[in-house]
Amino acid sequence: MENILSGWVGALVVIPLIKIAIIVVGITLIVLAMNWIERKAIAHMQIRLGPMRVGWHGLLQPVADAIKFLLKEDVIPERADRWVFILAPAVALIPAFIVYSVIPFGPGKTFIVTDINIGILFLIAVSSVGILGIVLGGWASNSKYPLLGALRSSAQMISYEVAMGFAIIPVLMAVQSLSLVRIVEAQKELGWWFVFLAPVGTLSFFLYFFCGVAETNRLPFDLPEAETELVAGFHTEYSGFRFSLWVLAEYANMITVSSLATLMFWGGWLRPFPNVSALSFLDVIPGLVWFLLKMSAFLFLYIWFRATFPRFRFDQLMRLGWKVFLPLGIVNTMAAGVILLYWPGK
Amino acid sequence: MQEETVIHYGEHPTVMDAKELTLNMGPQHPSTHGVLRVKLKIDGERVTDLECVIGYLHRGVEKLCENETYIMVPPHLDRTDYIAAVSNGLGYVEAVEKLLSLEIPRRADYARVMLTEFNRIASHLLWLATHALDLGAMTVFLYAFREREEILKLFEMHCGARLTTHMFRIGGLHADLPAGLLKKAREFCGSFEKKIDDYEGLLTENRIWIQRTKGVGVISGAAAIDIGLTGPPLRGSGVGWDIRRALPYSVYPEFKFEIPTGSSGDTYDRYKVRMQEMRQSNRIILQAIDGLPEGPTMAKVAKVIKPPVGEVYHSIEAPKGELGYYVVSDGTTKPYRVRIRPPSFVNLQALRQLAIGHLLADVVALIGTLDIVLGEIDR
What we know:
The complex is a heterodimer. Chain A is mainly alpha-helical. Helices cover 67% and strands 0% of the residues of chain A. Chain A folds into 2 domains: 1-71; 81-341, no CATH class. Chain A has helices at 2-6, 8-45, 61-71, 82-98, 119-140, 144-175, 180-190, 200-215, 227-230, 240-265, 287-308, 314-342. The longest helix of chain A has 38 residues, at 8-45. In chain B, strands 1-2-3 form a 3-stranded antiparallel β-sheet. A 3-stranded antiparallel β-sheet of chain B has the order 6-7-8. A two-stranded antiparallel ribbon of chain B has the order 4-5. In chain B, helix 4 (106-134) packs antiparallel against helix 5 (138-159) and helix 5 runs antiparallel to helix 6. Chain B is globular and about 65 Å long. Chains A and B meet through helix 6, helix 9, helix 11 and helix 12 of A and strand 1, helix 4, helix 5, helix 7 and helix 14 of B.
C-alpha cells in the first residue's frame, strides 16, 4: 500500500483520484447543505418557516428533492435537438467541477489536487466553457422561452467575463503569479488580505464579486432564468435528472466564485492578521475551516441578495457591465500598475 | 392577426432571417395574473406589437344576474373582481338602493365605508405583492400578504368569508359589526402606516426598482382619458379624478382624505399613487371607526324586492378604478339587465399602447402596474 502511494503511480494517479472523489462528494454535499440553508434563510427573512416536514426542520428536504429528481420522468421535447439537449447539462456541469482541481482549500499540497502555475487562467478558461452548455441547452430545447434565456445568458456572461478579468488583473500584477497558492502566500507575506488594500484591492473585490454574481445568474442578475418573464429561462424544457444537473452546475459555480473571492481577496485559508503573533491562538482552527467559513459567508451573501433585490432589466444589465464595471476595472488596473511601479519596497 | 399557420421548425426556411418572433405569454404564465394571454411580437427583446386575448374565465355573470332575484345577485358579483369583492357588492347594492330610492341607516353607511376601504388596502396589497414579485423582489410579496391576511381575518369576523364576502345587503348590513371588530381594526390601522414604510423601505429608494419602473409605460393625462383609464393608472398621470370626490356616493363627503396624483404617468408614479392611497384609506378607516354612529344597520326593506320600472347607472371608486353598474328594472323581482363596467377591462386596453417599444421584461411590469383581475375582465 505504501509503495503504491509513494511511487509515481501514487503521486500521479491514486492520490489525485482520491482527492477528486473527495471534492466531488464534498461539493455535492455543500450544494445540498446550501440548498437547505438557502431555503431556511430566505424563509426566515420572509417571515415564514420554509421546509419543516422532511426530517428535523426540513433537514432532509434536499435529500428528498434529490431522490425526487432522480425518480421523475425525463422528458425530452419531441422537436428538441435530441443529442445536444442530452449533452448540454453535462457541458455545463463538468467544467463547473473541473475548476476545483486548481483551488487550494487549505495550506500545503494536501488540500489541492494540482497546483499548476497558470491556475487562475485555467480556472477562468474552463469555467467559460460552462456558458456553452447554457447556450446549447437553450437552443436545443427548440422552444422560445429557453431560446430567449440562452440569448440573454450568453450576452450577459460574456460581458461580465470581461469585467471580471479586469477585476482579477490587479491581484495578478501584485503577486506576479497565476497560481492560486502563490496568491494566498503573497497575502501572508504582506500580512494583509488584499481586500484591505484600499482603494485598488477593495474595488477589485467588489467588482469581482458583483461580476461573479452576474456570471452565476443569481438575483439581481438572474435574467437568463427570470421566472416571471421567461418562465424558467434556458432550462424551461428540462425535467427530472437533467434539471437537477443544471441546478448542481449553478450551485457549483456559486461555490467557485465564492472560493475565488476568498482566495484572491480574503486570504484563503489564512487567519485574520496572519503575521500578528498575538493572535496566534487562532491557529488552533485549521486553515480548511477558515477557508470554508469565509466561503460560506459569501454564499450567504448570495442568499441575502436574493431575498432583497428586484431584478435588473436586460439593457440595464448590459449598461452596468459595459459602461460601469468595465471602465472601473480598467481604471483600477491602471491605478494598480502605477502604484506597483512607484511603490517603494514592494 | 387571427390566422393560424402551423410552422414546422425543421422546414422553416428563414429562422435566421426572421425579424420578429411571436411569443405566446399565457394563459399559463407565471406573471400574466390569472388567465390573460398576450400574443407578443418581439424583435430581439423589444416588443413591436402585442395583442391581448381574453375570455378564458368567462362565466356569463351578467346573464346569470338576469335570472336571479335582486338579493341573489351580489354573490355572483363577488366573483368578478374577487380581490375586491366588498367594493363590487357596494356598487351593486347602492345602485339598487338608488333604484328603490332607499335611505339606509348612517351606521350601515359608515360600516360600509370602513369595510370597502379595508378592501381597497387588501387589493392594493395584493397588487404590490404581485407587482414586486414580477420584478423579482420576492420578500415584499410575503410582507404584503402578512397584512392582507389580517384584513381578511376582519372580514371573516364580520361575515364568515374571506374572499367572496357578500358583505352588504340591499338596505344595509346583514348584521351589526361583531364585538371586537372595531378594536382589531383600530389595532391594524395603528400599525399599518409603519408596515407601509417597510415596503417603501425595500422599494421606493431602491435603485434597481427605480430603474425598472421610472420612465416605463409613460402615458400622458390626455391619452389616459382618451383610452378611458380610471383609478390609479389615471391618477398616476396627474389627473385627479376619484369618484369618491368627483361623484360622491355613500358618506364619503363627510371624510377628510387626499387624492394622491402622480406627475409623469410612468410605472413608478402609479406605484407611488397606490402606496399613498393605502395611507389615505387607513386615514378614512380611522375616521370611520371614530365617527361610527349608533343605531340600526338595516333599513326597512320589503322581503321581496321589486324596484319600480326604470334604470340606473351607479359608479364607485373600486380599488382598480371606476366600477359601474347599470341596472335596468322591468318591475319584476329579477333585474332585466345588469351591466358591469369593470375597471380592469378598460384599463387593460392601455397595455398595447404602453408596451410597444419597451422590452420584454417591461411587459411584465406593465401588466402588474395596470393591476388587472381576469375575473372582472371576462366576467
